[in-house]
């Protein structure tokens, strides 16, 4: 109990109350010094997380010259949004562009909160030259079939010498009916895979790289779809036998994809990354490390240096969320109970029932470095079993550079 009271007192002494993005100025200035700003979330369905991340992103773009946003989404779907905000397209509005998100869980990006940000990005870009326009990119690994289809379509459009190899590779995947898990089972347990066709295609694309038009955005699109196909094949092959290693493959892919996007925008470019806390918060400060798991936050700190990476965690005390009962089920609005006793969220609440943020480099409280449960909700959620698996033991001041806490939240608004 003494330890709990001490932690509550430490939070009271160190936290700053906020009501709008303008109140976050100390955090924003710190974040703006980094090359990469990682903005987390403790659920994939909370309106306040999306709205505040959008406001932070706008501020960093306008005041600190950030060049692109990368999100925990599929490359092909996000590329349609990127096209809409940068170039003339047939899309009439953000909602048309967001229809590209067809794979479950669509609500993660096809929602009103993201539509509002996309509208702002387009308006911002309309006054800029092409090379100065802000990009919006997905760096996740799941879009095996979508990326393969994009490769075939692009090669056909330019009469590429590699189109037949691409079609053969795609035909190899077709019997699995866009069910990547089926492919993983076939590859892992029955030795029936498409690796030979895929390696042949990727090798040929590399050999013939001088053939392709020097349209940098088209080249980036081709390169990232190829990277997704290569790493997704590995991900789904491993997923059915080793969940921890498949996690590592996914997060390493996201960092590799981010590096390619960063190179596209140039050596001086600066990027904003939106992902779940479990990806952007350093895995070494959680029990993930005991399981041999890494994540984006850890890998980026290791590769680019801690001074170049600024990670902001997000959490909340109670509210509602968009999620599903089980994977693939229809989404629903689900109430989220008050945070578990003794958790970081409960301690933040006890220190004052209002929105607040912590800057860990501006406090010497060693208590922020103790291991305490930290809530994490994914795309599936059952509040009755929250205590059994929704709290990640975390050393908050090691996991993040800053933390934003909401007292009350509401579910985001998926598009119909």
TrEMBL record:
Gene3D superfamilies: Biosynthetic Protein domain, EreA-like (biosynthetic domain), EreA-like, domain 2. Signal peptide: none annotated. PANTHER family: ESTERASE, PUTATIVE (AFU_ORTHOLOGUE AFUA_1G05850)-RELATED. It comes from Halalkalibacter akibai (strain ATCC 43226 / DSM 21942 / CIP 109018 / JCM 9157 / 1139) (Bacillus akibai). Transmembrane segments: none annotated. Keywords: Methyltransferase, Transferase. One of its GO terms (biological process) is methylation. Pfam families: Erythro_esteras. One of its GO terms (molecular function) is methyltransferase activity. It comes from the Bacteria. InterPro entries: Emycin_Estase (IPR007815), Hydrolase/PRTase-associated (IPR052036), UCP036794_erythomycin (IPR014622). This is Protein-L-isoaspartate O-methyltransferase.
């Amino acid at each position: 109990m003494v330890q709990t009271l001490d932690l509550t007192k430490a939070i009271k002494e160190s936290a700053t109350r906020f009501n709008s993005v303008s109140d976050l100025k100390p955090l924003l200035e710190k974040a703006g010094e980094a090359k990469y700003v990682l903005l987390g979330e403790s659920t994939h369905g909370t309106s306040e997380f999306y709205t505040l991340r959008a406001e932070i992103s706008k501020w960093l773009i306008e005041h600190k010259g950030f060049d692109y946003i990368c999100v925990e989404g599929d490359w092909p779907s996000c590329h349609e949004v990127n096209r809409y905000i940068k170039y003339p397209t047939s899309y009439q509005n953000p909602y048309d562009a967001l229809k590209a998100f067809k794979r479950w869980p669509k609500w993660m990006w096809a929602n009103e909160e993201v539509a509002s940000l996309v509208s702002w990005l387009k308006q911002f870009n309309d006054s800029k030259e092409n090379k100065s326009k802000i990009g919006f990119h997905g760096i996740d690994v799941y879009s095996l079939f979508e990326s393969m289809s994009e490769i075939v379509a692009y090669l056909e459009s330019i009469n590429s010498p590699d189109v037949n190899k691409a079609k053969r590779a795609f035909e190899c995947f077709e019997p699995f009916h866009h069910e990547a898990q089926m492919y993983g089972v076939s590859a892992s347990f029955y030795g029936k895979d498409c690796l030979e066709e895929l390696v042949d295609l990727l090798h040929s694309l590399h050999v013939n790289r001088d053939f392709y038009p020097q349209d940098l955005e088209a080249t980036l699109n081709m390169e990232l779809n190829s990277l997704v196909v290569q790493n997704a094949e590995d991900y789904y092959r491993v997923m059915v036998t080793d969940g921890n290693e498949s996690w590592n493959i996914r997060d390493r892919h996201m960092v590799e994809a981010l590096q390619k996007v960063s190179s596209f925008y140039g050596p001086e470019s600066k990027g904003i990354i939106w992902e779940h806390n479990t990806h952007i918060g350093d895995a070494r400060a959680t029990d993930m490390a005991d399981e041999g798991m890494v994540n984006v936050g850890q890998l980026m700190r290791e590769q680019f240096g801690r001074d170049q990476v600024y990670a902001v965690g997000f959490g909340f005390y109670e509210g509602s969320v968009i999620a599903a009962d089980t994977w693939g089920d229809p989404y629903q609005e689900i109430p989220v109970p008050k945070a578990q006793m003794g958790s970081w969220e409960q301690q933040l609440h006890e220190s004052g029932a209002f929105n607040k943020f912590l800057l860990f480099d501006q406090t010497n409280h060693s208590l922020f470095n103790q291991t305490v449960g930290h809530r994490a909700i994914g795309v599936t959620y059952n509040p009755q079993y929250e205590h059994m698996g929704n709290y990640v033991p975390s050393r908050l001041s090691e996991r993040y550079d800053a933390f934003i806490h909401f007292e009350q939240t509401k579910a985001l608004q998926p598009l119909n």
